[in-house]
TrEMBL record:
GO biological process: isoleucyl-tRNA aminoacylation
Homology family: Belongs to the class-I aminoacyl-tRNA synthetase family.
Aminoacyl-tRNA synthetase class Ia domain span: 1-78
Name this polypeptide is given: isoleucine--tRNA ligase
Domain Methionyl/Valyl/Leucyl/Isoleucyl-tRNA synthetase anticodon-binding: 130-280
Principal EC category: ligase
EC code(s) of this entry: 6.1.1.5
Organism listed in the record: Onchocerca ochengi
């Protein structure tokens, strides 16, 4: 307010009087940042957290995003809360980093599997989810550029921060198997290419908002791109590629996500975890195109909500579903005046199903001489009789679509649920397992590192009581569990010959049984070579998980470790300059174990 009165208004008066035109083309005005209780921040009262502590705890980027995604950028006041900065870190930066880390891990798997360096090729994927995320991202990019051009910063940041939830919880979540190479090499490559393009695009787009984090990611990602820029801040904000924007694909996936969300609500309502499969789900909608879109993506829906069968239908009467009219009292009141009560009463008590169906088709409804529009009356689905028909059927609607799920349990469904519980426990145990990894060297001391997805491990399991159904499930579903976790689960005690090894243990409950897991990793910790480049050195494994590095792969690892992507030629020597003993590309790399080699780059 003081800026408007004392500065902007004065400038406007002077410029108008002197030049007969405004003093500025655009004006950006920020609000005030207040203490959490709404009072002004005061050094005397110390009613605010130390800014340096906030930056040290959450990072400068988290603080920046919190402030530019607040009412301050709309010229309104903000009550500063430390929890808001923490939420940005939790909901934006960490999911974003996890997406990047997931990409890097699976690129390494791809390179090991195919024995070649991963690069971003200009190839088009026919996969619907790849097309969708590229379209969705370019649509977002187009929106951001338009809003920024109009100086509407307040409209930009919210969609950007929500984007990472879409990226991680929709695209990556539904395509994990593809990115891990489980659906074949072609799908493996296309999914990683798509994710790599998306990450590079988002890093460039978000650079003005999160400069430090984007710079960190750029330094690690730029070698797979065609850009020669040493910093992301030398890059321009990218232009959207209109050829990649497909609104129909975006609409299809949006409908799929809406159906998935409805099922999740039903599961939460009944307290049924996603690990436990459901027999059937029924999707009812009056639009044929909606149902066709759902069917085209049914494999993703079935996998995500863990249901055995998906059925779509127009026949709502079969499932006790009917149309319901909800009047818009504000619009009807302003137009109908005293007749509003009669019309509302008719809509609630006398309108027929046939009239509402005609309304759904034509968009208008004639009642008591008034023609009502879709804005004045909202149509939605409601459900009657489902509970009476079958106590195990549950229904939920978002107003346009209704989803009914069969929550009946049988032995097969329970057993699969138990197996998924075991998978969950093993995966958590793998994440918490640390090994001494000689590929991470700082000051010649090895660091502990987490298990990688392709690291081999075995889990020994004990179930109490031993007669519980869970024990039989572990045997019957052993192949399913191993495929899902990459870890055999043996229903036996820990052997004596491994009791001195590093073992990660977890004890938990599954329904009314207790399960105890002992995880042992078999990552190789020998056959490492120490690589020197200038004053820096790094240890690289020559063999791991029964696989020996190739000479080409060793050069790739060296380029990656020392960031030598710009060097056209690398030579390896057993001795430091000026003495040189070159290593042949045809040598047995295991002969180099525990030796020092020196890199000569040109």
């Amino acid at each position: 307010i003081d800026q408007t009165r004392g500065w902007f208004y004065t400038l406007m008066v002077l410029s108008t009087a002197l030049f007969d035109r405004p003093p500025f083309k655009n004006l950006i005005c920020n609000g005030l940042v207040l203490a959490s209780d709404g009072s002004k921040m005061s050094k005397r009262k110390k009613n605010y957290p130390d800014p340096l502590e906030i930056v040290g705890k959450y990072g400068a980027d988290a603080l920046r995003v919190y402030l530019i995604n607040s009412p301050v950028v709309r010229g309104e006041n903000l009550r500063f809360r430390e929890e808001g900065v923490r939420d940005v870190l939790k909901d934006v930066l960490l999911p974003w980093y996890n997406a990047y880390r997931f990409f890097v891990q699976n690129v390494k798997i791809y390179e090991c599997t195919n024995s070649k360096e991963f690069t971003l090729l200009d190839t088009k994927s026919v996969n619907i989810m790849d097309r969708w995320i590229l379209s969705f991202t370019n649509s977002l990019l187009d929106f951001v550029r338009n809003e920024m051009s109009a100086y509407r910063l307040y409209a930009v940041v919210a969609p950007l921060t929500k984007y990472f939830d879409v990226l991680t919880n929709c695209y990556i979540r539904l395509n994990r198997k593809r990115m891990k190479g489980e659906d074949g090499p072609e799908d493996h490559a296309h999914s990683l290419l798509t994710l790599g393009k998306i990450l590079l695009l988002i890093v460039r787009l978000m650079a003005p908002f999160t400069p430090f984090f984007c710079e960190h990611l750029w330094q690690n990602l730029r070698h797979i791109s065609s850009s020669s820029s040493e910093s992301v801040h030398f890059e321009m904000i990218p232009q959207p590629v209109n050829d990649l924007i497909d609104i129909s694909v975006e609409k299809r996936v949006a409908r799929m996500r809406a159906v998935i969300d409805l099922v999740r609500v039903l599961r939460e309502r009944k307290g049924i975890p996603v690990k436990y499969p459901l027999k059937e789900m029924i999707v009812i909608n009056r639009e044929k195109q909606f149902l066709d879109d759902v069917l085209s993506l049914q494999n993703y829906i079935i996998t995500e909500v863990n249901v055995r069968m998906l059925t779509v239908s127009h026949n709502k009467e079969k499932y006790g579903v009917y149309l319901k009219a909800e009047p818009n009292f504000r619009l009807l009141g302003s137009r109908l005046k005293n007749d509003q009560k009669k019309v509302v009463d008719y809509l609630k008590n006398q309108v027929t199903e046939k009239e509402l169906e005609q309304f759904a088709e034509q968009g208008t409804l004639n009642i008591l001489g008034y023609e009502l529009s879709a804005e004045e009356v909202n149509l939605s689905y409601a459900c009657r009789g489902v509970q009476a028909t079958n106590e195990r059927m549950e229904a939920h609607s978002d107003g346009q679509t209704i989803v009914i799920v069969d929550t009946t349990e049988d032995d097969d469904l329970k057993d699969e649920g138990f197996a998924r519980e075991v998978v969950n426990r093993v995966q958590k145990l793998r994440k918490s397992y640390w090994v001494v990894d000689p590929t991470f060297i700082i000051k010649s001391e090895s660091l502990q590192a987490r298990l990688l997805p392709n690291d081999k491990a075995v889990a020994y399991c004990k179930v109490s009581p031993s007669t519980h159904r869970l024990a039989a499930v572990i045997k019957d579903y052993s192949e399913f569990i191993e495929n899902a976790t990459g870890t055999p689960v043996l229903l036996s005690s820990l052997p004596d010959d491994v009791k001195n090894a590093k073992i990660e243990v977890s004890c938990s409950s599954v329904k009314d049984a207790k399960i105890e897991l002992h995880l042992i990793c078999y990552r190789a910790t020998s056959s490492a070579v120490t690589v020197h480049y200038g004053t820096r050195k790094h240890s690289i494994l020559l063999a791991a998980n029964d696989e020996v590095l190739t000479y080409t792969r060793l050069l790739y690892e060296i380029r990656s470790v020392f960031s030598l992507w710009s060097k056209s030629k690398l030579l390896l020597s057993l001795e430091a300059l000026p003495t040189v003993t070159f290593i042949s590309s045809k040598c047995n790399l295991l002969d180099l174990a525990d030796k020092d080699i020196y890199v000569i780059a040109s």
